[in-house]
Amino acid sequence: MMINSNDYRNHDGYRGSFNRLSKLVFGIEFEAWYQKGAWDDRYICHSFIADDEVIANVSVSKMSLVINGESIRALQIGTVMTHPEHRGKGLSKQLMEHVLDTYEDTCDLFFLFANRTVLEFYPKFGFAPFPEHQFHLNIPDEPQANIISLDKLDVSREEHWNLIKKKISSRNPISKHFGVTNTEGLFQFYALNVYPECLYYSHTDDAIIVFEHEGDLMHLYDIVSDKEVDVEALVSRITTEQTRQIRFHFTPDQIIEKVYTEPFGKNEDVLFIKSLSDLGKLPAFCIPKLAHA
Residue 60: beta bridge partners? Predict the structure, then answer.
Protein backbone atom coordinates (compact mmCIF):
# COMPACT_ATOMS: atom_id res chain seq x y z
CA MET A 1 0.00 0.00 0.00
CA MET A 2 1.37 3.43 -0.93
CA ILE A 3 0.52 7.10 -0.85
CA ASN A 4 0.32 8.49 -4.35
CA SER A 5 0.82 12.24 -4.10
CA ASN A 6 1.30 12.82 -7.79
CA ASP A 7 -1.26 14.45 -10.02
CA TYR A 8 -2.75 11.27 -11.47
CA ARG A 9 -5.72 12.82 -13.27
CA ASN A 10 -4.29 11.68 -16.60
CA HIS A 11 -3.81 8.07 -15.43
CA ASP A 12 -6.94 6.31 -16.67
CA GLY A 13 -6.72 3.45 -14.17
CA TYR A 14 -6.23 5.52 -11.01
CA ARG A 15 -8.72 8.16 -12.16
CA GLY A 16 -11.29 5.46 -12.84
CA SER A 17 -10.74 3.95 -9.40
CA PHE A 18 -10.94 7.41 -7.78
CA ASN A 19 -14.26 7.99 -9.57
CA ARG A 20 -15.64 4.65 -8.40
CA LEU A 21 -14.75 5.47 -4.79
CA SER A 22 -16.19 9.00 -4.94
CA LYS A 23 -19.39 7.64 -6.44
CA LEU A 24 -19.61 4.99 -3.71
CA VAL A 25 -18.97 7.44 -0.85
CA PHE A 26 -20.53 10.68 -2.11
CA GLY A 27 -22.63 9.73 -5.11
CA ILE A 28 -20.54 11.95 -7.40
CA GLU A 29 -17.82 11.39 -9.95
CA PHE A 30 -15.34 13.57 -11.78
CA GLU A 31 -15.12 12.00 -15.23
CA ALA A 32 -17.25 14.55 -17.14
CA TRP A 33 -15.24 17.30 -15.43
CA TYR A 34 -12.02 15.66 -16.61
CA GLN A 35 -13.28 15.10 -20.15
CA LYS A 36 -14.22 18.80 -20.42
CA GLY A 37 -10.64 19.72 -19.54
CA ALA A 38 -11.77 21.38 -16.30
CA TRP A 39 -9.78 19.15 -13.92
CA ASP A 40 -6.67 21.32 -13.81
CA ASP A 41 -3.48 21.22 -11.77
CA ARG A 42 -5.09 23.17 -8.92
CA TYR A 43 -7.03 20.06 -7.82
CA ILE A 44 -4.66 17.33 -6.62
CA CYS A 45 -5.51 13.95 -5.12
CA HIS A 46 -3.44 12.42 -2.33
CA SER A 47 -4.46 8.79 -2.08
CA PHE A 48 -3.66 5.46 -0.55
CA ILE A 49 -3.51 2.93 -3.37
CA ALA A 50 -3.55 -0.83 -2.84
CA ASP A 51 -3.56 -3.36 -5.69
CA ASP A 52 -3.99 -0.44 -8.14
CA GLU A 53 -7.20 0.69 -6.42
CA VAL A 54 -7.71 4.00 -4.62
CA ILE A 55 -8.88 3.05 -1.12
CA ALA A 56 -8.58 6.42 0.67
CA ASN A 57 -8.17 9.99 -0.47
CA VAL A 58 -7.69 13.58 0.64
CA SER A 59 -7.73 16.15 -2.16
CA VAL A 60 -6.46 19.72 -2.16
CA SER A 61 -7.65 22.70 -4.19
CA LYS A 62 -5.21 25.58 -4.57
CA MET A 63 -6.87 29.00 -4.56
CA SER A 64 -6.70 32.47 -3.08
CA LEU A 65 -9.08 33.94 -0.54
CA VAL A 66 -9.94 37.61 -0.55
CA ILE A 67 -10.53 38.68 3.06
CA ASN A 68 -11.28 42.35 3.71
CA GLY A 69 -9.69 43.18 0.36
CA GLU A 70 -6.46 41.30 1.02
CA SER A 71 -5.46 38.28 -1.08
CA ILE A 72 -4.40 35.25 0.95
CA ARG A 73 -2.87 32.05 -0.39
CA ALA A 74 -5.18 29.23 0.62
CA LEU A 75 -5.53 25.51 0.27
CA GLN A 76 -8.95 23.90 0.54
CA ILE A 77 -9.14 20.28 1.61
CA GLY A 78 -11.94 18.15 0.22
CA THR A 79 -13.03 14.75 -1.09
CA VAL A 80 -11.93 13.14 2.18
CA MET A 81 -13.03 9.54 1.79
CA THR A 82 -12.13 5.97 2.64
CA HIS A 83 -13.51 2.78 1.15
CA PRO A 84 -15.85 1.12 3.67
CA GLU A 85 -13.66 -2.01 3.74
CA HIS A 86 -10.63 0.01 4.86
CA ARG A 87 -12.13 2.29 7.50
CA GLY A 88 -10.81 2.29 11.05
CA LYS A 89 -7.17 1.95 9.94
CA GLY A 90 -6.23 5.61 10.35
CA LEU A 91 -5.78 6.18 6.62
CA SER A 92 -7.53 9.57 6.57
CA LYS A 93 -5.43 10.69 9.54
CA GLN A 94 -2.22 9.76 7.74
CA LEU A 95 -3.33 11.51 4.56
CA MET A 96 -4.32 14.67 6.45
CA GLU A 97 -0.92 14.79 8.15
CA HIS A 98 0.77 14.19 4.79
CA VAL A 99 -1.16 17.04 3.11
CA LEU A 100 -0.54 19.51 5.94
CA ASP A 101 3.18 18.72 5.95
CA THR A 102 3.43 18.91 2.15
CA TYR A 103 1.79 22.31 1.72
CA GLU A 104 2.58 24.10 4.98
CA ASP A 105 5.19 26.35 3.34
CA THR A 106 3.10 27.15 0.26
CA CYS A 107 -0.02 28.73 1.75
CA ASP A 108 -1.22 31.07 4.48
CA LEU A 109 -4.15 28.97 5.61
CA PHE A 110 -5.96 25.67 5.11
CA PHE A 111 -9.73 25.40 5.17
CA LEU A 112 -12.40 22.78 4.63
CA PHE A 113 -16.10 22.10 5.05
CA ALA A 114 -17.19 19.24 7.28
CA ASN A 115 -20.56 17.64 7.81
CA ARG A 116 -21.73 17.40 11.38
CA THR A 117 -20.85 13.71 11.78
CA VAL A 118 -17.09 14.43 11.72
CA LEU A 119 -16.79 17.68 13.69
CA GLU A 120 -14.43 16.13 16.23
CA PHE A 121 -11.97 14.88 13.58
CA TYR A 122 -10.47 18.11 12.25
CA PRO A 123 -9.56 19.92 15.51
CA LYS A 124 -7.01 17.12 16.03
CA PHE A 125 -5.02 18.74 13.20
CA GLY A 126 -5.24 22.31 14.45
CA PHE A 127 -8.44 23.32 12.65
CA ALA A 128 -10.99 25.54 14.39
CA PRO A 129 -14.63 26.06 13.38
CA PHE A 130 -15.60 29.48 12.03
CA PRO A 131 -19.28 30.44 11.95
CA GLU A 132 -20.66 31.38 8.54
CA HIS A 133 -23.80 33.41 8.02
CA GLN A 134 -26.63 33.43 5.54
CA PHE A 135 -27.91 36.62 3.97
CA HIS A 136 -31.54 37.17 2.97
CA LEU A 137 -33.32 40.00 1.22
CA ASN A 138 -37.07 40.39 1.43
CA ILE A 139 -38.83 41.35 -1.80
CA PRO A 140 -41.82 43.73 -1.69
CA ASP A 141 -45.25 42.40 -2.59
CA GLU A 142 -45.67 44.73 -5.57
CA PRO A 143 -45.53 42.93 -8.93
CA GLN A 144 -42.14 43.20 -10.57
CA ALA A 145 -41.98 44.81 -13.99
CA ASN A 146 -38.93 42.97 -15.20
CA ILE A 147 -37.24 43.78 -18.46
CA ILE A 148 -34.17 41.62 -18.80
CA SER A 149 -32.68 39.49 -21.51
CA LEU A 150 -31.55 36.16 -20.08
CA ASP A 151 -30.15 33.30 -22.13
CA LYS A 152 -30.36 29.87 -20.49
CA LEU A 153 -26.95 28.24 -20.88
CA ASP A 154 -26.53 24.62 -21.96
CA VAL A 155 -23.20 23.09 -20.89
CA SER A 156 -23.45 20.55 -23.72
CA ARG A 157 -23.33 23.33 -26.34
CA GLU A 158 -19.77 24.26 -27.26
CA GLU A 159 -20.46 27.97 -27.66
CA HIS A 160 -22.11 28.14 -24.25
CA TRP A 161 -19.31 26.19 -22.59
CA ASN A 162 -16.74 28.49 -24.21
CA LEU A 163 -18.64 31.50 -22.89
CA ILE A 164 -18.56 30.02 -19.38
CA LYS A 165 -14.81 29.39 -19.61
CA LYS A 166 -14.17 32.89 -20.94
CA LYS A 167 -16.17 34.60 -18.21
CA ILE A 168 -14.74 32.64 -15.28
CA SER A 169 -11.16 33.12 -16.49
CA SER A 170 -11.41 36.89 -16.08
CA ARG A 171 -14.01 37.22 -13.34
CA ASN A 172 -13.93 39.56 -10.39
CA PRO A 173 -14.24 37.94 -6.96
CA ILE A 174 -17.89 37.96 -5.91
CA SER A 175 -16.96 39.55 -2.57
CA LYS A 176 -14.05 41.57 -1.26
CA HIS A 177 -15.15 40.96 2.33
CA PHE A 178 -14.71 37.21 1.90
CA GLY A 179 -14.30 36.01 -1.68
CA VAL A 180 -12.21 33.61 -3.72
CA THR A 181 -10.09 33.69 -6.86
CA ASN A 182 -8.46 31.00 -8.99
CA THR A 183 -11.46 28.68 -8.75
CA GLU A 184 -12.28 28.22 -12.44
CA GLY A 185 -12.17 24.43 -12.17
CA LEU A 186 -14.54 24.34 -9.21
CA PHE A 187 -17.06 26.57 -10.97
CA GLN A 188 -16.99 24.24 -13.98
CA PHE A 189 -17.56 21.24 -11.71
CA TYR A 190 -20.72 22.85 -10.31
CA ALA A 191 -21.85 23.90 -13.77
CA LEU A 192 -21.55 20.33 -15.04
CA ASN A 193 -22.66 18.31 -12.03
CA VAL A 194 -24.76 20.37 -9.64
CA TYR A 195 -26.38 23.41 -11.27
CA PRO A 196 -26.53 22.76 -15.04
CA GLU A 197 -30.18 23.94 -15.08
CA CYS A 198 -29.43 27.16 -13.16
CA LEU A 199 -27.00 28.87 -15.51
CA TYR A 200 -28.04 32.06 -17.33
CA TYR A 201 -26.30 34.80 -19.26
CA SER A 202 -27.53 38.34 -18.75
CA HIS A 203 -26.90 40.60 -21.72
CA THR A 204 -27.86 43.62 -19.61
CA ASP A 205 -25.13 42.89 -17.07
CA ASP A 206 -22.72 40.99 -19.34
CA ALA A 207 -22.63 38.39 -16.57
CA ILE A 208 -23.34 34.74 -15.92
CA ILE A 209 -25.93 34.36 -13.16
CA VAL A 210 -26.46 31.11 -11.27
CA PHE A 211 -29.83 30.98 -9.53
CA GLU A 212 -32.96 28.91 -9.00
CA HIS A 213 -36.33 29.20 -7.28
CA GLU A 214 -37.61 27.07 -4.42
CA GLY A 215 -41.22 28.16 -4.08
CA ASP A 216 -41.16 31.87 -3.29
CA LEU A 217 -37.47 31.71 -2.28
CA MET A 218 -34.78 32.48 -4.84
CA HIS A 219 -31.32 30.99 -4.27
CA LEU A 220 -28.70 33.26 -5.86
CA TYR A 221 -25.49 31.24 -6.04
CA ASP A 222 -23.12 33.34 -8.10
CA ILE A 223 -22.66 36.32 -10.41
CA VAL A 224 -19.73 35.97 -12.80
CA SER A 225 -18.41 39.05 -14.55
CA ASP A 226 -15.18 40.92 -15.15
CA LYS A 227 -17.04 44.14 -14.37
CA GLU A 228 -18.66 45.55 -11.25
CA VAL A 229 -22.29 44.37 -11.42
CA ASP A 230 -25.01 46.38 -9.71
CA VAL A 231 -26.36 43.58 -7.52
CA GLU A 232 -29.44 45.43 -6.32
CA ALA A 233 -30.47 46.32 -9.87
CA LEU A 234 -29.79 42.79 -11.09
CA VAL A 235 -31.87 41.31 -8.28
CA SER A 236 -34.79 43.61 -9.07
CA ARG A 237 -34.77 42.37 -12.67
CA ILE A 238 -34.51 38.62 -12.13
CA THR A 239 -37.16 38.30 -9.43
CA THR A 240 -40.63 37.16 -10.48
CA GLU A 241 -44.09 37.93 -9.10
CA GLN A 242 -43.73 34.84 -6.92
CA THR A 243 -40.36 35.83 -5.42
CA ARG A 244 -40.70 36.94 -1.81
CA GLN A 245 -37.17 36.39 -0.56
CA ILE A 246 -33.64 35.93 -1.91
CA ARG A 247 -30.89 33.98 -0.21
CA PHE A 248 -27.39 34.97 -1.23
CA HIS A 249 -24.94 32.07 -1.18
CA PHE A 250 -22.03 34.51 -0.94
CA THR A 251 -21.36 37.72 0.98
CA PRO A 252 -23.34 40.48 -0.83
CA ASP A 253 -20.97 43.39 -0.15
CA GLN A 254 -22.92 46.04 -2.05
CA ILE A 255 -26.18 45.59 -0.18
CA ILE A 256 -24.87 44.28 3.14
CA GLU A 257 -26.79 47.03 4.98
CA LYS A 258 -30.09 46.01 3.33
CA VAL A 259 -30.02 42.26 3.96
CA TYR A 260 -30.72 40.48 7.20
CA THR A 261 -28.18 38.08 8.56
CA GLU A 262 -28.46 34.89 10.59
CA PRO A 263 -26.13 31.99 11.39
CA PHE A 264 -26.05 28.91 9.20
CA GLY A 265 -28.59 26.25 10.04
CA LYS A 266 -27.79 23.00 11.81
CA ASN A 267 -28.04 20.98 8.60
CA GLU A 268 -25.32 22.93 6.79
CA ASP A 269 -21.64 22.01 6.65
CA VAL A 270 -19.28 23.66 9.11
CA LEU A 271 -16.30 25.73 7.97
CA PHE A 272 -12.97 24.85 9.60
CA ILE A 273 -9.85 26.98 9.21
CA LYS A 274 -6.23 26.30 10.13
CA SER A 275 -4.49 29.65 9.75
CA LEU A 276 -0.77 30.19 9.94
CA SER A 277 -1.37 33.80 11.03
CA ASP A 278 -3.96 35.66 13.10
CA LEU A 279 -7.08 36.39 11.05
CA GLY A 280 -8.43 38.73 13.69
CA LYS A 281 -12.14 39.33 14.12
CA LEU A 282 -14.09 38.60 10.95
CA PRO A 283 -17.39 40.28 10.11
CA ALA A 284 -20.37 38.13 9.12
CA PHE A 285 -19.47 36.29 5.91
CA CYS A 286 -20.31 33.35 3.69
CA ILE A 287 -17.69 31.66 1.52
CA PRO A 288 -19.16 31.46 -2.00
CA LYS A 289 -20.99 28.16 -2.36
CA LEU A 290 -19.56 27.48 -5.79
CA ALA A 291 -16.07 27.54 -4.29
CA HIS A 292 -16.73 24.57 -1.98
CA ALA A 293 -14.49 21.65 -2.92
Answer: 44, 77
